[in-house]
Each structure stands twice: as structure tokens, then as C-alpha cells.
Amino acid sequence: MKYQEKIRLAEETIEWLSKGRSFEDFRKELIQRKHYQHEIENIFRSAKKLILEDNNKAFGECLLKNDLESARAMYSSLNDEAFDVIKKFKIVELIEDCKRQTDYLAQDEFEEEDIIEQVANHLFPEQDVRDQIYFYKKHNMPLNRQEKQNYRAIGIAIIVTGVALSIASYNFPKAGSFSIYFGVITLGLVIFFKSEVKN
Fold this sequence. Notes:
Layout: H1 3-18, H2 23-32, H3 37-52, H4 56-64, H5 68-74, H6 80-107, H7 112-119, H8 126-140, H9 145-171, H10 178-197
Helix pairs in contact: 1-3, 4-5, 4-6, 6-7, 6-8, 7-8, 9-10
């Protein structure tokens, strides 16, 4: 599907919604027109973005404050089903923003409690912030000396085992497939070099 057609159908989706119809109503219409599900999802995603375009920031602030009455008033022309779809779509965006903000502050080595104070809200509560900090540090922060030593020891042990098994498979063909043992050696090298790269 070309971009122009997707936008045209997204705008048509909005027209349907403005008449009190639902996303599911238009989904059935698009299916009858022989559109695939992944095309329909792309159309709806564009429609949601277009709907949010004018009130995106204000709508997000209402959701963060849990002020659903004001949020609903911004889209009074939508029926409840359509509004719920838009609301969920924006909530996902807001949560992703909170995750990015948490990562940014963790990268700048802010204290955990300071990050929680700046980021936590009813959509992304304290425990979610803590989990995101843990996830970020696990995958991005440098290894300490003990962790490096552990990776090196495990890597060397696997490499030695793989080399020994490879020699055995070469001298005794029935001992197993050489390609499998080469994979074991490769795994050992990956683990070993992880201690060198992640610093």
C-alpha cells in the first residue's frame, strides 16, 4: 500500500468515527474492500496519530493527571469505543516516553529515588520505574571486576571444552559432529569477549 492511499484511508476512518461509528465498523468495511489485516492496522495507526495531532500534548497531560472528564471532552464527537481506542493508543505512547526518560536519567547516573520522583505517575508507577532502571543498568552499565572475571572464566571453560571435543571428534569420528563443537567454541568466545566489550 502506498503512503498516499494509507493517509486517504486514515482520513476516511476519521470521517466514519466523526459520525459516531467505531474502528471495528470501518475494519469490516476495509476487509470487504480486500485489505489485509496488517494494512488495516497501519491505516488505523495513522488515523490515531491524525486524531491526536491537534490536542496531543493537552490530551496526554489530562491522562497523566487521570482527568478523564477533560480528556473525553476533547473528543466528544467520538463514540465510547473509538475514544477508548484513542486513549489506549496515547497511554502506550506516554508509557514509552516514561521509559525513555528513565533511561536518560539512569544514563546520567541520577539516584534511583530522584528518577522515581521525576518520572513516576499513575500510568508508570514507582515499581515500573525501578524495573526500568534495573533493565537499563543490566543491559547498558559497565561490568564490575567480579562480573568480568566470571564471564572470562565461563568463556575460557567453554572454549577449552569445545576445543577438546573438536579434537576428539577429529580423531574419533563417532565422538560427534565437529560443527557442533565449533559452535560451542564460538559461544565461549562470545561470552569471553563480552567481558572485554562491556566496560
